[in-house]
């Protein structure tokens, strides 16, 4: 008579390892034009690079940028698995507008399928296009699925544009909120800016937002126009790049100055109402 497999007979689960990516999106800083890419060790701890070099299975926001990242990792730590043999699975994109309940269930099933190697005993790396996976990133769905499946989640240190921008802003760092993207429509964006400013004033809470780089200037102009003069407004652009910068001032002072924000480099905008 056959027996049911015991718990000890079950395969040992692998781990979900959160691998930090750079914030440079594979760009060469202006001071390095004609040269090589910046050394990863300047922005990512060696322990994280070593962990990335050992992995073969990946869940990625973008396969192309993940391969580019692994190529750079290989220049520092030899890859245990050749780049062409890496198993890189891409996160499903949520349907625009929220989609249907059926689409949501399908996405959940697709996310669960991405963790199959971990259920078979292999460590799986989770990586974003930039920064820390799961933070302002669709990878959070994979992390939650891992917890539900009893898979150990291991976060590794690396750059986060939101945290670095907050630290460099001089604004309130003990209470803050990342609220993602603001509406593209100008009237809805203005309304949202005023709502967030009221929230900032009431809770003494720093508000952080991001935007698609080519809309940086439009967002900046809206913030300067619709925030109150005494509100502190900060912008961080190209964090960790040699050309990166952070500047903070009152809105009234910003209205007297011109600020050129590149339309091809990510920026983080933050404010604190008086």
How many strands in all? 10
What would the average pLDDT be, to the nearest integer? Answer: 89
Which CATH architecture of the largest domain would you pick? 3-Layer(aba) Sandwich
Strand content: 15-25%
**Total of helices:** 9
Characterize the biggest β-sheet: 5 strands, parallel
The CATH first-level class of the largest domain comes to Alpha Beta
Tally of distinct domains = 2
Order of strands, main sheet, comes to 3-2-4-1-5
Instruction: Kindly report the name of the CATH homologous superfamily of the largest domain.
Output: Tetrapyrrole methylase, N-terminal domain
Helix-strand string: EHEHEHHEHEHEHEHEEHE
Low-pLDDT stretches are 1-6, 28-35, 96-101
State the secondary-structure class: alpha/beta
Describe the protein in words.
The protein is of the alpha/beta class. Strands 3-2-4-1-5 form a five-stranded parallel sheet, with helices on both faces. Strands 6-7-10-8-9 form a five-stranded mixed sheet, sandwiched between helices. The chain contains nine helices and ten strands.
């Amino acid at each position: 008579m056959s027996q049911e497999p015991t718990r000890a007979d079950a395969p040992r689960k692998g781990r979900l390892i959160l691998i930090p990516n750079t914030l440079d999106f594979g760009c060469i800083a202006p001071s390095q034009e004609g040269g090589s890419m910046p050394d990863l060790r300047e922005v990512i701890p060696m322990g994280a690079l070593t962990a990335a070099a050992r992995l073969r299975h990946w869940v990625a926001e973008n396969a192309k940028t993940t391969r580019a990242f692994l190529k750079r990792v290989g220049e520092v730590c030899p890859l245990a698995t050749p780049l062409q043999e890496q198993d890189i699975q891409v996160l499903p994109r949520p349907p625009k507008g929220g989609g249907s309940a059926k689409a949501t269930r399908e996405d959940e099933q697709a996310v669960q399928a991405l963790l199959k190697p971990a259920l078979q005993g292999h460590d799986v790396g989770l990586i974003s296009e930039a920064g820390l996976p799961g933070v302002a990133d669709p990878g959070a769905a994979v992390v939650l699925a891992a917890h539900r499946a009893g898979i150990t989640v291991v976060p590794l240190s690396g750059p986060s544009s939101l945290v670095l921008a907050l630290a460099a802003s001089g604004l309130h760092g003990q209470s803050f909120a990342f609220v993602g993207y603001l509406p593209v429509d100008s009237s809805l964006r203005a309304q949202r800016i005023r709502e967030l400013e009221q929230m900032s004033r009431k809770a003494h809470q720093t508000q952080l937002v991001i935007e698609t780089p080519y809309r940086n200037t439009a967002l900046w102009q809206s913030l300067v126009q619709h925030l109150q003069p005494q509100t502190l407004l900060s912008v961080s652009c190209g964090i960790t790049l040699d050309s990166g910068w952070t500047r903070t001032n009152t809105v009234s002072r910003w209205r007297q100055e011109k600020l050129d924000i590149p339309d091809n480099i990510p920026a983080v905008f933050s404010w604190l109402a008086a």
